[in-house]
Structures are given as C-alpha cells and as structure tokens.
Amino acid sequence: MTRVVMMDIDGALMDTNYLHVEAWARAFAGLGVHAPRVEIHKQVGRGSEQLIREFVEDEKAVHRASELHTEFYGELQKYGYPLPGARELIADLSNKGYELWFVTSTKPEELENHQKQLESEGRISGIVHSSDVENSKPAPDIFELTLEKANTSPEETIALGDAIWDIKAAKAAGIRTVSALTGGAFDEEDLKDADDMAVYKDCSTLLGSDFPE
C-alpha cells in the first residue's frame, strides 16, 4: 500500500523546463559555448554541476556557468506556471491522506515561488533538495535521504517525475516511478525503457487514474 508520494517539480508540476533550457543556453553562450538547446533539454533534471560538465570542462567555467544560469533564470522564472492538474493533484493527494514530499534539483531560492503557485503550503510534509546530498540525480542519494526523513520504505513509496534521471535515481533507491510527459525531453518509449511503471500526459490525467495505487 502506498503511503508516501515523492514529486519532482520542474517539468512534472511546474512548466519551467524550457525556461531552464534557455537560461542554460544563455549561460553557456556567455562562456563562448553554443550548446544545442535540444541537448541541454535532455540534461535538465540532473544536478546542475553534472549538467554543466556535459558542455564545459574548466573548473572556473563550471562555477561561472552556474552563476550565469541563476542570473538568466531569475529573469525568466516569471514565465513559469503550474502544469495542468498540478495544483489539483497536490490537493487531492493531500486530502486523501498521502504524505507528499518534493524531491528536486530546483534551487532553494526558486522554491518559494513554486510553492506559492502550486498552493502547496500545508499540504506537503517536506522538501529534499539536491544540495542536501553528496550526489545528485541520477544517483539515488536524494531519494534515499527522503525515505529516511519520511521514515518510510520503498514499498510504501511512489515517485512522480518527468525525466529518465528521476526514474534511474528512484529505481536505484528501490522506489517505483510514474512519469508525466510535460517535461518535454523524453517520450513515452524513452521513459518506459528507463523502467517507468506508467506514463501520463500530465497531472490532470493522473487525477483521472488510480494513482498512486
């Protein structure tokens, strides 16, 4: 029986993946690296340092790319908004008594805005961020820490994500996953090949299913 639902934010609950892609593209361009946006998109969901190292190698450039991304995303984040059914799914699961946790690479300074838009205050039990662990997705650390904080087992838990990085990380922690296609970088075949249980169009279709059971 499922007791705990772990939820990614960017791409699963918030329509922000494409904003991050643009912010990263501008950050890399500022370093003289013109990375194809399609390739950046496929890396969104991993920890930022892992993402950056796919495109730049110099240590100083890695740090500067992160700074530039924060700067550019700060200008773009006002264009992000909840994906279809995200607010309603959070409210529905909370009202049914499920324990909800945000498990995310979203930077702490972005979380306040997301929580406000998702109307999640008082509905989630906690947030575990990639900065809380040594290794970010696709390593299982962030899910293992959430299991510990939630005092739950993998068998009582299910995770919602949008990218193969979510699936690989959750699977390595023994947690079942379902995905929404709203992240945009991966199609249904990609996600199922990564060992996803089920793929949904968006959160609104999850509302009409038997999720999370």
Question: Can you offer a commentary on this structure?
Answer:
The structure is a single chain. It is built from ten helices and six strands; from the N terminus they run βαααααβαβαβαβαβα. The chain has helices at 17-30, 37-43, 48-53, 59-76, 86-95, 108-118, 141-150, 164-172, 188-193, 203-207; strands spanning 4-7, 99-104, 126-129, 157-161, 176-180, 198-200. The chain has a six-stranded parallel β-sheet, with helices on both faces. Helix 6 (108-118) links the parallel strand 2 (99-104) and strand 3. The longest helix is centred in the N-terminal third of the chain and has 18 residues, at 59-76.
Features of this protein?
six-stranded parallel sheet; globular; alpha/beta; 45% helix; single chain; 213 residues
